[in-house]
Design brief:
It is built from six helices and no strands. The chain has 209 residues and is mainly α. Helix 2 packs antiparallel against helix 6, helix 3 packs antiparallel against helix 4 and helix 4 packs antiparallel against helix 6. It is elongated and about 65 Å long. 27% of the residues are buried.
Length: 209
């Protein structure tokens, strides 16, 4: 009996030009997904604050140290700027990308160090629960972003070590592998910049508003 599906050899390969476009679109769709997730914390913040049922918005002394918040924010913003530069400046991709990964890791570490010094828990009112939930999930999701960033930097380093990418980039050769590598870094840097923008919004809401 003959197979109803075509054999692998008869399947037309996907055009190489589709892959960079798919990465570009996937990064934008992922931005939409993550936006809806963190909008839930934004809604919870203003909803619980406006209700303030039984004066339970803040129970006791609930004031996170703004110094930690500023340090985390600075690391995140610098990381996003450097990684975006890594995507737009081929000659600085590895160094800028590596620095961006390190700064992002420092930001996550600082976030968990902050928890060790907090004098309140998630059960001490609406603010405490939103603060803990928002910052904790943000830090955990950031680890996934950092892993994505690291794979892009490692892929570039491997291609650079093989010796072909420098010549192709310098000569402007539109090789498919180089285009795909650049598209991956661009997609990752776009999403990371968007994710850091959410972190900036979180800082404003949780520390300033």
């Amino acid at each position: 009996m003959e197979a109803s599906a075509p054999l692998a050899g008869h399947i037309e390969p996907e055009p190489p030009t589709w892959q960079p476009r798919a990465l570009w679109l996937s990064a934008r769709l992922l931005c939409g997904v993550i936006s809806f997730y963190f909008l839930s914390f934004l809604f919870a913040y203003f909803y619980l604050r406006s209700l303030d049922t039984n004066n339970s918005w803040k129970i006791g002394k609930v004031d996170p140290t703004i110094g930690f918040g500023i340090a985390i924010l600075v690391c995140l913003v610098l990381s996003a700027v450097l990684f975006r530069a890594a995507a737009t400046r081929p000659t600085d991709t590895f160094r800028a990308g590596l620095a961006a990964v390190v700064l992002a890791l420092i930001a996550v570490i600082l976030q968990f160090v902050q928890y060790l010094g907090l004098d309140f828990g998630a059960s001490q009112g609406g603010y405490a629960s939103v603060f803990t939930g928002w910052t904790a999930t943000y830090a955990v999701f950031a680890l996934g972003c950092i892993y994505w960033m690291e794979t892009q930097v490692a892929s570039f380093w491997r291609a650079k070590r093989e010796g072909g990418i420098d010549r192709q980039v310098a000569e402007g050769v539109p090789a498919d592998d180089v285009q795909l590598l650049r598209a991956g870094i661009e997609a990752c840097s776009f999403f990371w910049a968007f994710y850091v923008a959410i972190g900036v919004a979180a800082f404003i809401v949780l520390y300033i508003v």
